[in-house]
Write the structure tokens for this entry.
Amino acid sequence: VAGVVSGSSAAAVAPEASATAVHLVPLPQSLTMRGGELRFADTVAVQVDTQSPGAEAALEATLESLGIAVADAGAVSDVDDAPTRIRLQRVDDPALGDEGYRLVIAGDVQLGARTEAGLLHAVQTLRQLLPAQPQADIRLPRLEIVDAPAYRWRGLSLDVARSFLPVEYVERTIDRMALFKLNRLHLHLTDDQGWRIEIKRWPKLVEIGGASAVKGGRSGWYTQDELRHLVAYAQARGITIVPEIDVPGHVQAALASYNELACDDEDNLAPYSGLEVGFSVLCLDKPEVVYPFVQQVLEEVLAIFPSQEIHMGGDEIKHPLYGEFVAHTARMVEDMGRTAIFWEEGSVADTRPDVLFQFWNDGYDIAAAVEEGHRLILSPCSYFYIDHGNYAGQPQTYDWCRKEGVPLARLYAFDPTPFPTAVGIEAALWTELVHTDAAADNRLWPRLAAAAEVAWTPKAQRRYEDFVQRTGALRPHLDAMGIGYHPEPDLGWQ
Ligand code: TNX
């Protein structure tokens, strides 16, 4: 609706309406309309006084996708018909934190941040303000935005183990995540049904383990070069890829590849394509085999992924030596200079408080770990397991955690504030029942937009009616990116 300033629940929204409506997701911390418009010239001069190649590239790609010519700022003279200027600069304002930014649209456009991550977010905000498609007459409302996230971890977990997702699909998902300022892509690289990361010292992991998949799903694996490419691709867009090697359970693909990783009396060593969980385990009675395996895998994983946090799984396994294994593995990660994440079950082990836990069963008692200072990544399944339906009974979805599925409004209603040590949230797409790019798109969108806002915008500033209005208005942007989103009725997209 023209004239409506969306984002009206933000603390510092000025009442005066602009001729151009503003629809931003996630909702910025403060947005002040200054009245009037900036009309874009056919040529825009991008002025960069900082080393931020990712932000500069993102800005120029955005402008070029709209048919706007980008001039070299150095070549532009200050004459009356000078093109519109967009300036990217580092500003030394501690209030902006590690990811905050300032965006001012007045006679020109100024994007300022302390970090490249902040500048990237500023560019994404500008991208949402701009039209999704080339347009003859581009006008932006004059305004000022000062923005920063509530949580530093705003993630998506993709299960590429049950059913493989090709490199191109992961790239596309990274582009789309960036539009909503999501900054962590957790890749669940190994599970019973498949091993998806090349490990040169253990080549059969992908030769055998990469060839299986859940029934109906896709097999395949990533070379180390492909993963390095994805790491750089994500990094240029402000996203850290967090690898998960799930041990000691969920390892049938590894056992099928190297039988010696199983206990000697183990008679089930075949590749697995079923849906059960919790049946396979590394032979914890053979530490002289299992620990060097984990160590050597980790050495190669860490050489690919610069992420400080490394996910070691640890879910759904009952074994007398489980706690000892988790504690040992956490130390291994720490000795290599990184920080381990485990699924919540790992909190039974004796680990240093810097180890993170990913909370996934709504009812799990995580209080003791919080008490000890462990930080949490919040993925309670009844809100964030988006292998569950967009609506109750959606075909090819699970409903074990919530019969009604996880509709957009449900996800949006999550309140992280009762978790004092939370670093953020992560939506999780498990792929037992998601076997195509189209199905993945349908499960991810628009729900990831809600996840992004839950993690970025403080709960007290969020209102669902306002969110659906803003998100609904971004449909052309999602269309321009080719997203096969669920036709969500709450957004009027059916
Ligand atoms: C639980 S979440 C699992 C996954 C399944 C998922 C299906 C977690 C740590 N374990 O192995 O894929 O449910 O919804």
